[in-house]
Amino acid sequence: MKMALMLLLAPALPLCLTGCGETRVERIVPPPERLTCAAQPSPPSGNTDREIASFIVDLVEAGQDCRDALAWIKDWSKQP
After folding, report:
1. Cα–Cα distance measured from residue 77 to residue 62, given in angstroms and rounded to the nearest whole number
2. CB-based contacts of 36: which residues, under 8 Å, 6+ apart?
3. What tens-digit pLDDT sequence spans the chain (80 residues)?
4. Coil, helix or strand for 68?
5. At a CB cut-off of 8 Å and minimum separation 6, what does 35 contact?
6. Which pLDDT does position 36 carry in this prediction?
7. CB atoms within 10 A of CB 71
8. CA 32 from centre of chain
9. CB distance 37 to 65 below 8 Å
10. Is 59 buried (19+), middle (13-18) or exposed (0-12) by CB count in 10 A?
11. Which of 38, 43, 39, 69 is CA-nearest to residue 56?
12. Of 7, 46, 67, 80, which residue has the fewest beta carbons closer than 10 angstroms?
């Protein structure tokens, strides 16, 4: 009985071993748009409160853009 079962299953054995052949490694690169940050804004040409406030807002937005991109890459790299 055992011998007959082994003979029936023998042809299926090579199919079970096909995944044991070679290991393939692929480099996965994040999307290019996630690898850059917004440019740092140029300092204001004048020194009015409006110009300085606008510069500060632009500076904070550029920094947040970079932090968001870095956080996305961090989360992306943890995926299986």
Report:
1. 23
2. 69
3. 677 766 677 776 666 665 666 788 888 888 888 899 999 999 999 999 999 999 999 999 999 999 999 999 999 888 77
4. helix
5. 69, 73
6. 92
7. 10
8. 10
9. yes
10. middle
11. 43
12. 80
55: left (phi over 0), alpha (psi -120 to 50) or beta: alpha
In a domain? residue 69: yes
Judge whether 66 and 37 are in contact, CB under 8 Å. Answer: yes
Cα 55 to Cα 37, 46, 63, 64: the distances in Å are 17, 11, 12, 14
Decide: 73 and 34 in contact? Cβ < 8 Å.
yes
Number of domains the chain is built from: 1
Is position 75 within any domain? Answer: yes
Examine residue 34 and state whether it is found in any structural domain, yes or no: no
The reply to whether 18 falls in a domain is: no
3-state secondary structure of 22: coil
Residue whose pair of structure tokens reads 């961090």 in the numeric block: 74
